[in-house]
Amino acid sequence: MLLRDLPTRALSVRAPWDFAILEMGKPVENRKRSHRFRGLVFIHTSSWWKESEVAEDRDFAEEVARRTLPDRWPADRHLPLSDLTPRLGRITGMVEVADCVAVSDSPWFFGPVGFTLRNPVIFKNPVQCKGALGFFPVPESIRAAVAQAEGFANA
Questions:
Q1: Which of 17, 18, 46, 94 would you label with 82, given CA atoms 20 to 30 Å apart?
Q2: What secondary structure does DSSP assign to 58-114, as a single string?
Q3: Domain count, the chain
Q4: Average pLDDT of each block of 10 consecutive residues along the chain (155 residues)?
Q5: Are 22 and 122 in contact (CB under 8 A)?
Q6: Which residues form the domain of 56?
Q7: How far is residue 48's CA from residue 2's CA, in Å, rounded to a whole number?
Q8: Does 155 reside within a domain?
Q9: Which residues contact 140 (CB under 8 A, 6 or more apart)?
């Protein structure tokens, strides 16, 4: 992948939902408002952290992952919260936003609207980045840092 092919926008997502998108097969990101954006975006893991809420959400995400992807997320697999904290405030992957829906059969959907997602890519070397609400523009310097960290071509 070339630097020019990397996303120019990011979507900030709270832990553990970023992890669920990139590694647990979560195909929808729930939001309060619809958006017309479609295409490739970076996933930015928000720096927000409230341990009790993250733990509760993690337990729910694991339950859904076990039902939907039992081979990838077996009953004995458990995500330690300590695995999530190094991701905070970083670009952790990318995904394609395919649509925005008000109704979905996905067990990950709890609305009122959801961005349907596909082709998640998790980054081995997350890059620090200040986030923002909604889809936000990613500075060229951050895009270049992601390309370098992940070994993408920079032409």
A1: 94
A2: HHHHHHHHHHH-TTTS-TT----GGGTGGGTTEEEEEEEEEEEES----TT--SSEE
A3: 1
A4: 90 97 96 94 97 97 95 92 95 98 96 96 96 94 95 71
A5: yes
A6: 3-150
A7: 31
A8: no
A9: none
